[in-house]
TrEMBL record:
Domain Cardiolipin synthase N-terminal: 24-66
Protein location: Cell membrane
UniProt entry tagged with the keyword Acetylation: no
Keywords tagged on the record: Cell membrane, Membrane, Transmembrane, Transmembrane helix
Name of the protein in question: Cardiolipin synthase N-terminal domain-containing protein
Protein topology in the membrane: Multi-pass membrane protein
TM region(s), chain numbering: 12-31, 43-64
InterPro entries in the cross-refs: CLS_N
UniProt organism field: Bhargavaea ullalensis
Length: 69
């Protein structure tokens, strides 16, 4: 089956909202990391987690990594 036919069968109406939510979470997490410059653990580690662990990375940062004052 050619790739065009496979992509035509994907339910994009269900997938696009997930992409948007993931992008929003990453942008907010990076903005918070940039603004505060402190986290539970090395900041560069949290940057990598947020960047490479899709959807779960920003959620982990906000629940575990963010240092509450």
């Amino acid at each position: 089956m050619p790739i065009k036919e496979m992509l035509a069968e994907v339910p994009w109406g269900l997938i696009w909202p997930l992409f948007v939510i993931e992008l929003i979470l990453k942008v907010i997490a990076f903005a918070d990391l940039y603004r505060k410059r402190t986290a539970n653990g090395p900041v560069y580690m949290w940057v990598l987690i947020v960047l490479f662990i899709n959807t779960l990375g920003p959620i982990l940062y906000f629940t575990i990594g963010r240092r509450h004052e």
